[in-house]
Amino acid sequence: MKHLGNPSIRQQVLQRIAGLRPEMQPLWGRMTAHQMLCHLRDSFQVAVGEKRASPAGSLLQHSLLKWAALYLPAPWPHGVPTRPEVEQGVGGTRPVAFRDDRIDLIFIIERFSDPNRPFRWAAHPVFGRMSEREWLRWGYLHADHHLRQFGL
After folding, report:
1. Any domain includes 1
2. Per the domain annotation, does 2 fall within a domain?
3. Under DSSP, is residue 111 helix (H, G, I), strand (E, B) or coil?
4. Residue 74 is part of which domain span?
5. 52-91: pLDDT as tens digits
6. Whole-angstrom distance between the N-terminal and C-terminal Cα of the chain?
7. How many CA atoms lie within 13 A of 24 on its CB side?
8. What angle separates helix 33-47 from helix 132-149, to the nearest 10 degrees?
9. Interatomic CA distance for residues 67 and 116, integer angstroms
10. CB 57 within 8 A of CB 126
């Protein structure tokens, strides 16, 4: 099962991020490539407790939906609602400089994936409390979902 705790999987994700160009068009959705970088960075910041996202989960989402999202062998669906604090055009971080925003994303993925991480996992706004393994799996799946959005 792919997750960001695996160095070779993490490297593959980082190489895909390096291949992203500002002029790339999404295969679905409204975000630009630059906005997607910021959205991913915001989402990882929520995971490490540097940014807050309002909770939206119920007991069903904390159990059944979380299990399905993390373990079913199917790509995540398009158009799933995003928490406003990480949604581009609402409360998400606005893009500034593509190169710098990409470096910031790579940096937080490295910190998120570091086994000696100097932070405690936050609660996921929809899935609730998650284990280290679940967070690392989520990180891979979320990045993969948005990289596929841009054909990477």
Report:
1. no
2. no
3. helix
4. 7-149
5. 998 887 766 678 889 999 999 888 989 887 887 888 888 8
6. 19
7. 24
8. 170
9. 26
10. yes
Nearest to 130 by CA among 7, 21, 3: 3
Distance CA 100, CA 48 (A): 20
Q: d(Cα 127, Cα 46) in Å, to the nearest integer?
A: 13
Report the DSSP beta bridge partners of residue 124.
128
**Residue 75: exposure state from Cβ atoms within 10 A (0-12, 13-18, ≥19):** exposed
Q: Is residue 55 part of a domain?
A: yes
What Å distances lie between residue 92 and 72, 132, 147, CA to CA? 28, 25, 18
Which of 73 and 36 is assigned the larger pLDDT?
Answer: 36
Domain total in the chain: 1
Q: Is the pTM of this model over 0.70?
A: yes
Contact 44, 139 (CB under 8 A): yes
How far apart CA 123 and CA 147 sit, in angstroms, is 24
- Is residue 42 domain-resident? yes
The pLDDT of residue 13? 98
**For position 137, which CATH number holds?**
1.20.120
